[in-house]
Amino acid sequence: MPDSTSDQPGSALGTQFVERSLDLTGKLYQKSVYPAVLDVAHGRRLSSPLVVDLDPTTVCDLACPECISSQVLHHGQIGQDRIVRLAHELADSQVRAVILIGGGEPLLHRSVGRIIEVLHEAGIRIGLVTNGTQIHRHLDRLAGMLSWVRVSVDAADPDTYQAFRPSRGKRSAFPQVIENMRLLAARKKGRLGYSFLLMQRFDDDGKVTDSNYHEVYRAGVLAREIGCDYFEVKAMLDEDHYTVNQRPEDIEEVEDQIARLRALEDDSFHILHSSNWQAVRTGADPVQPKDYRTCAVAELRTTVTPTGVYVCPYHRGNPKGRIGDIQDTGFAELWSAADTSVIDPSADCRFVCARHATNQEIELLAQRPEPAVLVEDFDLFI
């Protein structure tokens, strides 16, 4: 795989790199990605997806009341021997990038270190979404082998963290998480992100009883202080992945804090909006109509979990979106037999989907007679 420094998110590429990494349609035109995208645009199947979301385990050491994955938690893990074999199978495929995610907390799987080593040795880019509690146990590998690590923190102090991200013990895990991030920031080769999910709780009369909205600015300042490359604000979704519209005064409170954080941006630290917060802040309809019946991105990305392989993370745990079981089937065999068209986006994906624009772009490719203008690889996490 090409060893491009621009594919290493820790390099000091400033605003231009951040904007490109958020440009999901632009990523389709990378030289090593476009041929597969064009095949998909013309209805051809790939020998493997380009990106795999991999849930090693459904076990988590936190007990977050608002966890959107609560329905799929604590249903076991991919066996230790099986997941190492899977890593080798991915290494032998055309997979270009793997995101260790969940479901549960991926760093709780006992074989996660070996998984990272196998994928890294094969030249596969690796990303990690984690709650951060176990970073210190895998510091060398995370610092040296990952393209990026995103930590879900959602708070700026221990009390708020314990309210929204309670540990299974009595003490808040916040100090450990922040120290882990500080340790990783000092040694990382890739990019480190501080993720902040906006959350509120209401009583029966609709009055806010608990919130982390007021901590956006302080959390962003903390993210910069401990050495993160970016701070990302995300909107809360309901259990069906629909954005939850906010009161104007609450949007204003968050936007004011984000505006203050903009003053802290430089070539090494950036403030990001997730696509769902963009939808909420602009008052977009939570229902996003789609006029296509198959998801092209489902052929480019897939989600592997202990309970099955699914077309995408939005449909993790949804029987309709299940396309196989990795526990007793090799990856190549599973993918060859998989039907990635089982989900009809026009009916099954009416929420705001981060890959909607990508699907629309791919649909247009087959209709364009002129050759595309391609760019050097800059981010394989399409």
Brief characterization of the structure:
This protein is of the alpha/beta class and 382 residues long. The chain has one domain: TIM Barrel, CATH 3.20.20. The chain has 14 helices and twelve strands.
Please describe the topology of this protein.
Elements lengths: L13 H8 L12 H8 L9 E4 L25 H12 L5 E4 L11 H10 L3 E6 L8 H7 L2 E5 L5 H7 L9 H14 L3 E7 L2 E3 L5 E4 L4 H11 L3 E5 L13 H15 L7 E4 L1 H7 L15 H4 E5 L2 E3 L11 E3 L6 H7 L7 H4 L7 H10 L17
Parallel strand pairs: 1-2, 1-10, 2-3, 3-4, 4-5, 5-8, 8-9
Antiparallel strand pairs: 6-7, 10-11, 11-12
Helix pairs in contact: 2-14, 3-4, 5-7, 8-9
Short key terms for the protein model shown above:
single chain, 382 residues, alpha/beta, TIM Barrel, ten-stranded mixed beta sheet, two-stranded antiparallel ribbon, 12 strands, 32% helix, globular
Q: What is the highest CATH level, the class?
A: Alpha Beta
Name the CATH architecture: Alpha-Beta Barrel
Radius of gyration: 20 Å
Order of helices and strands: HHEHEHEHEHHEEEHEHEHHEEEHHH
Largest sheet: 10 strands, mixed
Count of separate structural domains: 1
Question: Ends: how far apart?
Answer: 15 Å
Helix count, DSSP H or I runs of 4 or more residues: 14
Shape descriptor: globular
* Strand neighbour order, sheet with most strands: 9-8-5-4-3-2-1-10-11-12
CATH topology: TIM Barrel
How many beta-strand segments?
12
Mean pLDDT: 91
Strand content: 5-15%
Bin the helical content: 25-40%
Question: What would CATH call the homologous superfamily?
Answer: Aldolase class I
Structural class, by secondary structure, is alpha/beta
Uncertain stretches: 1-13
Protein name: Radical SAM protein
Keywords: Iron, Iron-sulfur, Metal-binding, S-adenosyl-L-methionine
InterPro entries: Aldolase_TIM, Radical_SAM_PqqE_MftC-like, rSAM, rSAM_sf
Pfam families: Radical_SAM
